[in-house]
Amino acid sequence: MLDGREALMRSVDLIEQAPESANALTLYALASTLEYERAGCLFKLIKLRDMDAEARRLAYGLMELVADETVADDAWQQAKARMDRAIRGV
User: Which of 77, 87, 64, 86 is nearest to 5 (CA)?
Assistant: First the structure.
């Protein structure tokens, strides 16, 4: 299994390289929902089918960050800000 921190950085790279791709948009949606633990981190797992095997590994790594309780720490916030900029085309 991929380390959560590595998955986070690789997810940012993937999103920045092709922000309009299904992999990028689905990873971004997952990352966005992981920030809302009180709402149950609502993410339709069926969306994993839209991703290739490598992107799914990244998704599973991002989910590990929930277990590690490191979602929303400084590294997460910096990575998420980069994702936001890439998706918004800024």
Answer: 64
pLDDT number for residue 41: 78
Write the CB contacts of 89 (distance below 8 Å, at least 6 apart in sequence). Answer: 19
Distance CA 52, CA 43 (A): 17
Rounded CA-CA distance 64/68 in Å is 6
C-alpha–C-alpha distance, residues 79 and 8, integer Å: 7
Cα–Cα dist 9/20, whole Å: 18
pLDDT tens for 40-70 read 778 889 999 999 999 999 999 999 999 999 9
**Structure-block tokens of residue 13:** 């790279």
pTM: 0.91
